[in-house]
Write a structure and sequence with these properties.
Layout lengths: L4 E5 L6 H9 L17 E7 L2 E7 L12 H14 L2 E7 L6 H13 L3 E6 L22 E2 L8 H12 L12 E6 L6 H9 L17 E7 L2 E7 L12 H16 L2 E7 L6 H12 L4 E6 L1 H6 L6 H11 L8 E3 L8 H15 L5 H14 L12 E8 L3 E7 L7 H14 L7 E7 L1 H17 L1
Parallel strand pairs: 1-3, 1-4, 4-5, 5-6, 7-9, 7-10, 10-11, 11-12, 14-15
Antiparallel strand pairs: 2-3, 8-9, 13-14
Helix pairs in contact: 11-12
């Protein structure tokens, strides 16, 4: 069932993102005292008094953007207004009524929007009287709030709930899977998200760094609710121009940490960079299932590059050895090519990463590993595996009982992981190995220590 949709609209820097963060109780949108930080439509699900609704943060209407994205930003806002069941029209009580406020009011009246007027930055009750002048906008008395101080937050939520109370609403299903879309700047992440949704939710431009926030978008795939997280394009830390880009960088890292599966977008015609390698390290460190999505594949075909899909497999294995098990998809996001099959592959990786393996199958694999490799000895003592059991999922985590954990060096562990992927139905996802000394070995070491002590 569709939820009531509430759009927060206002001129630049009136505190729309701060208000969304305040109502959400966490920092969803980047907040910065720079007009135009929010460009795409950021949305979250909220509940108040058993009424569920989607709250949408938009960019500042009428902003002049230094990267010539102003018309795209305004287009996103106009689309949000048309789709909204209620518009929270936010104004700045400190600055008072401005021509930009009046311009937005005309847009809302033209659209016939259901409007709730809110005056932000009313940091104490003594400022509330200033809101009288906003009645000239024609939307009644403004609700005075302070997003920074959470003043009148509950009252605003109450007024929103009253305005949408007649619209059917029920608790939405939890997302079956969260998919983070990551990559360096201008790799096609927003085009990918728009293609999945079948609408221009994200601003798409050849200008690098168009997306700044990490944007969660819910959608249905084969009747199952999923969440796509479109992240800002990452650049090298030394080249970050301002704190906004730094927030975007940390947001991308957080998105990887939150995700069940990561879609790692690679521009088909550009060589990998240090940024790509850093993102790959993040994915590896957090042990997330990952798909290399080679985007803009149409350019390879159209421009006559001498490259085949198998060439990319060798190249990615060499460049990102820590993700050699990750599958590869080839897409043209702007045309919607292979988007659905990439999502199907993400579902398969999610299935693998949440699989509970029978202990018997795990130990059959361990027996094969023992037979194929003995490992290096330490004073005549070789690595010995007793048995293993799965203790967790996401990532698949195996606890291996052995004679001495220190004998299982990096090379032996790498061999074990490669063989486990061959032998178990988890070939394309991370596997975490943990080693513990078997109790019989501990008893034997204890006896040997006692004998040694007596001799001394």
């Amino acid at each position: 069932m569709p939820l009531p949709k509430i759009a927060i609209v206002g001129r630049p820097n009136v505190g729309k993102s701060s208000l969304l963060n305040s109502l959400a109780g966490s920092m969803i949108s980047i907040v910065e005292a720079t007009p135009g930080v929010t460009r795409d439509r950021i949305s979250i699900l909220l509940e108040y008094e058993d009424i569920y609704f989607e709250l949408v943060d938009t960019g500042g209407y009428g902003i002049f953007d230094s990267r010539e994205l102003s018309s795209d930003i305004n287009s996103q806002i106009e689309r949000a207004v048309k789709e909204a069941d209620l518009v929270v029209f936010l104004v700045d009580i400190r600055e008072g009524l401005t021509p930009s406020d009046e311009q937005i009011a005309r847009l809302l009246r033209k659209n016939g929007s259901n409007v709730l007027l809110a005056a932000n930055k009313a940091d104490d009750a003594g400022m509330f009287s200033r809101a009288v002048e906003f009645m000239r906008l024609g939307f009644g008395e403004a609700v005075c709030v302070s997003a920074a101080n959470n003043l009148n937050k509950s009252y605003l939520l109450e007024k929103i709930s009253e305005k949408v109370a007649d619209i059917p609403s029920e608790k939405p299903e939890e997302a079956f899977m969260k998919i983070a879309v990551v990559g360096k700047r201008n790799a096609g992440k927003s085009s990918f998200v728009n293609s999945v949704l079948g609408e221009e939710r994200m601003i798409v431009s050849e200008v690098e760094g168009t997306t700044r926030d990490a944007v969660d978008v819910r959608f249905l795939k084969d009747g199952q609710p999923m969440t796509l997280i479109d992240t800002a394009g990452v650049r090298k830390k030394g080249k970050m121009a301002d704190s906004i880009e730094y927030y975007s960088y940390t947001r991308a890292e957080k998105s990887i940490r939150r995700a069940d599966v990561v879609l790692f977008l690679i521009d088909a015609v550009l060589p990998s960079s240090q940024v790509d390698k850093k993102l790959a390290r993040m994915v590896t460190d957090y042990m997330k299932p990952c798909i290399f999505v080679i985007n803009k594949w149409d350019k390879i075909l159209e421009e006559g590059y001498d490259a085949e899909p198998e060439d990319f497999s060798d190249y990615l294995t060499e460049t990102f050895p820590g993700l050699r098990y990750a599958p590869i998809a080839f897409t043209t996001a702007t045309e919607g090519r292979n988007i659905s099959s990439t999502l199907d592959l993400a579902k398969e990786l999610f299935k693998q990463s949440t699989m509970e393996l029978p202990t018997s199958k795990v130990n059959e694999a361990m027996e094969i590993i023992k037979a194929q490799r003995t490992g290096k000895s330490d004073k005549g003592v070789f690595p010995k595996i007793y048995y293993a059991t799965q203790v967790a999922v996401q990532p698949i985590s195996l606890l291996v009982f052995v004679n001495r954990p220190d004998l299982f060096d990096e090379n032996y562990q790498r061999f074990m992981l490669n063989r486990l992927r061959d032998l178990l139905p988890v070939s394309e996802v991370p596997i975490k190995l943990m080693f513990r000394q078997h109790h019989s070995e501990r008893r034997q070491m204890g006896r040997e220590k006692k004998i040694k002590n007596r001799r001394e």
